[in-house]
Amino acid sequence: MRPSLASTLRLALLAFTAHAAAFDCKSAQIAGFAYDLSPLARDIALVTNTTTPPSTASTKYAINPCAPLQPPPDSVPALDRCPAHAWVCRSLTYVKDGVPRLEEVGSLAGVAKGDSPTLQATAQGSDRPKEFHWKMDGAQVDGATWATDIRFVCDRKAKNEDLPTLV
Fold first, then answer.
1. DSSP letters spanning 35-74
2. CA–CA distance, 68 with 109 (Å, rounded to integer)
3. Mean pLDDT for each 10-residue chunk of the chain (167 residues)?
4. Which of 34, 78, 85, 139 is deepest in the core (most CB within 10 A)?
């Protein structure tokens, strides 16, 4: 008996869901080694300011390497938010004479429910990698897919409660 298209799609959806739900920061697999990345499981904001006379450009990256970002408060208008399933959100605000004006907001990683990152590293023999790449696609804008590639470098001196450092 040949499987129906509906049952084939159901199986494919189940396989996709199992794969997408498989990302777990507590037991992340990188180059054949298990890592506990759960201390990174929080929304982290990185902000850079650039003087752009007559204003200042403020670029904010909100990142959670373990799960989609927490939604902003209801007071934030829908147009000023990243999609519900974004893991990395970028916003660009110009400030002129003390008045902020949001110009851009978009998902650099994660668009749909079930999206999850890819972790890549190269091990040297049996040694654990000292760094890895966290990669994920984001929104499509003008036919181009935004994407994120974050290089994480292990700092054995850091404490679990320390925030990541931008280098």
1. E--GGG-S-EEEEEEEEETTEEEEEEEEE-TTSPPPPPPT
2. 9
3. 36 34 82 89 94 96 95 91 94 96 95 93 83 94 94 82 69
4. 139
- The tokens describing 122, both together, are 């190269």
Chain-centroid distance of CA 105 in Å reads 14
Helix (H) or strand (E) segment spanning residue 120: strand 118-120
CA angle 80, 23, 114 (to 5 degrees): 45
44, 64 contact by CB (below 8 A): yes
CA distances from 84 to 14, 50, 80, 106, 160 (A): 22, 28, 12, 11, 27
Token pair, residue 79, equals: 């147009």
pTM (2 d.p.): 0.79
> Which pair of structure tokens corresponds to residue 152?
């994480």
In a 3-state reduction of DSSP, which class is residue 97?
A: coil
**Confidence at residue 167, expressed as pLDDT on a 0 to 100 scale:** 66
| Distance of alpha carbon 121 from alpha carbon 135, whole angstroms | 11
